[in-house]
Design brief:
There is one protein chain. Strands 2, 4, 5, 6, 9, 10 and 11 form a 7-stranded mixed beta sheet that branches. The chain is mainly β. It is built from no helices and 11 strands.
């Protein structure tokens, strides 16, 4: 069992940057693939970015490529989502999710592939 905690959300103007962080309560994220998802009212949940447990593979949604970067810190204490050039359409509740890492070394952006979820952090982008 792993309890995920997100932080770093907020309200900013379009074009600004924000950094979200995902950590585990009482333990590290070592051995877990981590993904970020987002959902806004009336829309389906969208996979945003994912990184494998070894950090070898990263995947991004087309909507955020070139603007968002996912990374693991050296001690696996957190997985960070750096978001730049934010747009109003990035407004959503952002969740991090985890699953036990595999040797397949894939980082799917499919919610059903992940077993553990945080409570989410709100990101609001004003135009």
């Amino acid at each position: 069992q792993i309890q995920l905690v997100e932080s770093g959300g907020g309200s900013v103007q379009a074009g600004a940057s924000l950094t979200l962080s995902c950590a585990a309560s009482g333990r590290t994220l070592g051995g877990y693939d981590i993904a970020w998802f987002r959902q806004s009212p009336g829309k389906e949940r969208e996979g945003v970015a994912a990184v494998t447990w070894r950090g070898h593979t990263k995947e991004y949604a087309d909507s955020v490529k070139g603007r968002f970067t996912i990374s693991r810190d050296s001690g696996n204490k957190a997985v960070v989502l750096q978001m730049t050039d934010l747009k109003p359409e990035d407004t959503a509740l952002y969740y991090c999710a985890a699953r036990g890492g595999t040797f397949a070394d894939d980082a799917p952006l499919v919610g059903e592939k992940y077993y553990y979820w945080g409570q989410g952090t709100q990101v609001t982008i004003a135009s």
